[in-house]
Design goal:
- The protein is an alpha+beta fold.
- The model has no long low-confidence stretch (mean pLDDT about 85).
- It has four domains: about 70 residues; about 100 residues, Beta-Lactamase; about 55 residues, no CATH class; about 100 residues, Beta-Lactamase (2-Layer Sandwich).
- The chain has a five-stranded antiparallel beta sheet.
- The protein is about 20% helix and about 30% strand.
- Helix 1 packs across helix 4 and helix 5 packs across helix 8.
C-alpha cells in the first residue's frame, strides 16, 4: 500500500451499497488529516477492525483509494443475518442513551437492566475512537443503515469485535449484534486515565457521587461528555478543565453555600420512600411544594422527562453515602419547574428526604 497523500483523493468504498460506511470514510477523510492510505487504514481499523485501504496511482489520473469495509468480499456478512431470533438487540434515543436491551445484549455489554437509561453508547466505545464513534452514530441518525464489524468495550474493559446492523426508526436507533469470532480485538493504542475531579459545591456529596460515577463509566473522558451526563439530573451542571484537574459545578451561577442545618426546620416538606423510590409518606408541605399528591407514586413519575432512569442511580449513590445534601428541579402538576434543596438520610431500605424551596 503506497503513501498517497490524501489531500486530493477519490474514494471507492466496498461494499458499494453500504452508504453509511461510505459516509463515514468520506467524513474521516474530510474532517481529519489521515496523512496517508496506511494512516487512514489504521484510523478505520480502530473502529472497523477488518478495514483495508489500497491506493491506486496511475499516470494522468487523480489518486484513488479503495476502502474495503471487511478486507474484501465476505459472504457471511451478506444476507439479513440480523433477522435471526435471539440475537443481542439494543435501542437508543436520538441523543445516544441506551433505553432498551434484551438479556443477551445486556450480558454482552456487562450491564444490568436497571442501568438502561443511565448509560450512553459512548460508555462502550474503544479508547481512542470516541470522535469516530460519534461520526458513525451521526451517520445512522441521518437515516443510513449500517452493517459492519466494529469494536466495542464492555464494562469489563476488554475490547470485543462484533458484527452490527444499526438503523433509525423514528426517534430511536436500533442495533442487532453478534460476536465476530474471526477478528482479534487489538489492545487499544491509547489508554485514558480519568482526570482528578473536584466538585462544587463541596457540601453536595450526592452531586459528587453522581459525577464520579459518570466519569468512571467513560472509557475516553471529555469534559463535554461528562457535562452531558451530569445534565440528565443536574440541568445547569458544567465542567471546566484546569491544569491538574476537572471542576464539575452543579450551579455555575450560584455561590457556594455555607454549612447549616436548614433541614431541621419541622415546617419543611418531608417525604419517606423505599429503595424502589415508591413514596410511602409525604407531609402537606411536600405536596404543596410539588403541587400534587405523592403517596403511592414513584419518584420516577415526577422527574423531568428523560431523567426518570437516573433516579435508580441516585438512590444507589444515596444508599452508599447514608446521608447527602443536594439540589434538584422537578415539574409541578401544572408543568412549571420548582427548584429545591434536599437533604436525604437512608436507614436500610427506607429513605427520608427533606425539601426546601428556593426563590
Amino acid at each position: 500500500m503506497g503513501d498517497t497523500n490524501l489531500a486530493r483523493v477519490s474514494l471507492v468504498t466496498i461494499p458499494t451499497d453500504d452508504k453509511a460506511f461510505a459516509q463515514i470514510a468520506e467524513r474521516l477523510l474530510e474532517d481529519r488529516d489521515p496523512g496517508s492510505a496506511a494512516t487512514l487504514q489504521a484510523r478505520l481499523r480502530a473502529v472497523f477492525p477488518r478495514a483495508v485501504v489500497r491506493a491506486r496511482e496511475l499516470a494522468g489520473e487523480s489518486p484513488m483509494l479503495y476502502v474495503y469495509r471487511d478486507g474484501g468480499w465476505r459472504s457471511e456478512l451478506h444476507g439479513r443475518w440480523w433477522e435471526t431470533p435471539d440475537l443481542p438487540r439494543l435501542a437508543a434515543t436520538s441523543e445516544g442513551w441506551l433505553i432498551e436491551g434484551n438479556a443477551t445484549a445486556l450480558g454482552l455489554l456487562g450491564i444490568d437492566a436497571a442501568e438502561l437509561g443511565t448509560r450512553h453508547f459512548t460508555d462502550f466505545v474503544a479508547p481512542g475512537t470516541l470522535a469516530d464513534s460519534l461520526t458513525i452514530f451521526d451517520v445512522v441518525q441521518e437515516g443510513h443503515d449500517l452493517t459492519a464489524t466494529v469494536l466495542l468495550r464492555p464494562s469489563s474493559g476488554y475490547a470485543i469485535a462484533v458484527d452490527i446492523h444499526a438503523w433509525r426508526d423514528g426517534d430511536r436507533l436500533h442495533a442487532v449484534l453478534r460476536l465476530a469470532d474471526d477478528v482479534e480485538a487489538p489492545s487499544p493504542a491509547v489508554e485514558y486515565d480519568s482526570p482528578a475531579l473536584k466538585c462544587r459545591p463541596e457540601t453536595d456529596s450526592a452531586f459528587r457521587g453522581y459525577a464520579e460515577r459518570s466519569l468512571s463509566q467513560m472509557p475516553e473522558p471529555t469534559a463535554d461528555g461528562l457535562a452531558m451526563r451530569l445534565r440528565r439530573l443536574y440541568p445547569r451542571a458544567d465542567v471546566l478543565v484546569a491544569d491538574d484537574h476537572w471542576l464539575a459545578t452543579r450551579d455555575p451561577d450560584t455561590a457556594d453555600e455555607t454549612g447549616s442545618d436548614w433541614w431541621k426546620d419541622p415546617a419543611l416538606g418531608r417525604v419517606r420512600y423505599d429503595a424502589q423510590a415508591l413514596i410511602l409518606e409525604a407531609n402537606e408541605a411536600a405536596e404543596a411544594l410539588l403541587g400534587r399528591g405523592l403517596v403511592g407514586h414513584y419518584w420516577q413519575e415526577f422527574v423531568i422527562p428523560g431523567s426518570a432512569e437516573q433516579v435508580s442511580a441516585m438512590l444507589s449513590i444515596l444508599a452508599e453515602l447514608g446521608r447527602a445534601e443536594s439540589r434538584f428541579r422537578m415539574p409541578r402538576a401544572d408543568g412549571s419547574l420548582v427548584e429545591f434543596d434536599s437533604y436525604t438520610e437512608v436507614d436500610g431500605e427506607t429513605y427520608v428526604t427533606i425539601m426546601r424551596a428556593l426563590g
